[in-house]
Design a protein that fits this description.
Elements lengths: L2 H17 L1 H11 L4 H14 L1 H5 L3 H16 L3 H15 L6 H19 L9 H12 L4 H13 L24 H20 L1
Helix pairs in contact: 1-3, 1-10, 2-3, 2-10, 3-5, 5-6, 6-7, 7-8, 8-9, 8-10, 9-10
């Protein structure tokens, strides 16, 4: 991946999170600490501030560096989880990945997130979006299909009962609210997919 392409991806993700920060905060206020939007915006703005340095690195090293930056700047529970996603992806992906490489690396990264959060799909977390996206990658779905699948997966967390994180303390009261981490994950999937589509 060329430096300019990676820089555009960083810009796209940072713009998307910034544009939806208030929405993510509202979602998190319902069943969490209420700081998810602010924390994610801070983290991705920090990544954007160093986009030139990150983009100059080979893709695996860039992803690991981005993940480290997110751990240090997002804070809360989300920092380690989103940071782990990027760091594990960087650890597994080759410098010039094809779709199969991406799918394999993404699967390993999801396993790392699940282990870090001691969670699994079905517990009202970001994994409820990551897993369907991974399956879509394996099935060769188009970028548009993957975006729709991610959005639908985030919507599907609304009727779920939270079993992990701050929301789990609410028990049945967590039902009826979208998980903020699932929503931010779907937003990131959309940003990346649309940026890659424009490049193509």
């Amino acid at each position: 991946m060329a430096a300019a392409d990676l820089s555009r991806l960083i810009e796209a993700t940072a713009n998307t999170i910034a544009a939806h920060a208030e929405e993510l905060t509202r979602l998190d206020q319902a069943i969490g600490d209420g700081d998810h939007g602010l924390n994610m915006k801070r983290g991705f703005e920090a990544v954007r501030a160093e986009a030139g340095a990150f983009s100059a690195k080979p893709l695996p090293e860039a992803l690991k560096a981005i993940g480290t930056k997110l751990v240090m700047t997002v804070g809360g529970a989300s920092g380690p989880l989103f940071g782990t996603l990027f760091m594990a992806l960087g650890k597994e992906i080759p410098a010039a990945p094809d779709r199969a490489d991406l799918a394999a690396a993404f699967g390993k990264a999801i396993e790392a997130v699940a282990a870090r959060g001691k969670s699994q799909a079905g517990q009202k977390t970001m994994l409820d979006v990551l897993q369907p996206v991974h399956e879509a990658l394996l099935q060769g779905k188009t970028a548009a299909d993957i975006v729709e699948i991610a959005d639908n997966a985030a919507d599907a967390t609304v009727p779920m009962k939270a079993l992990r994180g701050r929301a789990s303390f609410l028990g049945d009261r967590s039902i009826g609210h979208m998980d903020a981490g699932a929503r931010s994950t779907a937003l990131l999937v959309r940003a990346v997919a649309e940026a890659i589509e424009r490049r193509a």
